[in-house]
Design brief:
Layout lengths: L1 E5 L2 E6 L6 E7 L4 E4 L7 H11 L3 E5 L5 H4 L2 H7 L4 E5 H7 L28 E3 L4 E2 L2 E5 L8 E5 L4 E5 L2 E2 L5 E2 L9 H4 L4 H13 L4 E4 L5 E2 L2 H16 L1
Parallel strand pairs: 4-5, 5-6, 6-7, 11-14
Antiparallel strand pairs: 1-2, 2-3, 3-4, 8-9, 9-10, 10-11, 12-13, 14-15
Helix pairs in contact: 6-7
Length: about 240
């Protein structure tokens, strides 16, 4: 996996030039928080990256429960039995393979690769505003009902899962980029995604770190453009 560092955050990318799948190591003083768990074959590379940084992974935080974000979870948990696993209360249901909707949610089928045989049980179910080390939890539903983003409060680097993509251009979840359409095809509810994107934009991140594509420094103008494009598409 390719490692790209920006301040306290290291982006790990599998197949960066073909089908980039990202996860992130966030450095604390004496430990690491892993945000997302990429694909099943990536566990060894993630552990090697942590060794390179010289700190242990003590927390595994999941932005949402799609296969390409939780794939190595079981393998990592076997190697890191003391690491605590975090996910939103809503997407913990998806992590169990349950696609059913809850009362009040838009009546749109949940899309994307939902796991069927994950053995790991989360230790902590997150809500909006919770803290995980230096990370502030920000609810960002839309791509999945329980998607979350994580803001590093030390430097305003924002890890968004698939609430935005940066591969093939910055886009809000659900908005199609023909050169990389997969996040759009896997998005549950476009209007909910747009509302979340507006909220994330208001955080004025210094760096946008998405699940697919390179990190974008000073992303405000590109985020605003992507939000405007989503608004136009949904108004048609």
């Amino acid at each position: 996996m390719r490692m790209t560092r920006e301040k306290t955050v290291a982006q790990l990318t599998y197949l960066p030039n073909l089908f980039p799948v990202n996860c992130y190591l966030v450095e604390e003083e004496d430990s690491l928080t892993l945000v997302d768990a990429a694909l099943p074959s990536n566990a060894k590379a993630i552990l090697q990256a942590a060794e390179q940084l010289g700190k242990p992974i003590t927390r595994i935080v999941l932005t949402h429960a799609h296969d390409d974000h939780i794939g190595a979870l079981d393998g990592l948990k076997e190697q890191l039995p003391k690491a605590q696993v975090y996910i939103s209360k809503r997407d913990a249901k998806l992590l169990r393979g349950d696609r059913s909707l809850e009362p009040g949610e838009p009546n749109t089928p949940i899309r994307g690769g939902v796991p069927k045989q994950i053995r790991t049980i989360p230790d902590i179910l997150l809500q909006d505003g919770d803290r995980v080390g230096s990370l502030l939890t920000v609810a960002a539903p839309g791509h999945t009902p329980g998607s979350m983003a994580f803001l590093d409060t030390r430097n305003h680097i924002l890890i968004v899962g698939d609430a935005f993509q940066t591969r093939a251009g910055v886009a809000v979840a659900g908005q199609m980029k023909l050169l990389f359409p997969f996040p759009a095809l896997a998005t549950w509810d476009k209007r909910t995604s747009l509302a979340s994107a507006r909220r994330l934009g208001e955080l004025k991140p210094s760096v946008l770190a998405a699940g697919h594509g390179n990190m974008v420094i000073q992303p405000k103008l590109l985020m605003d453009k992507a939000i405007a494009e989503a608004e136009r598409a949904l108004s048609k």
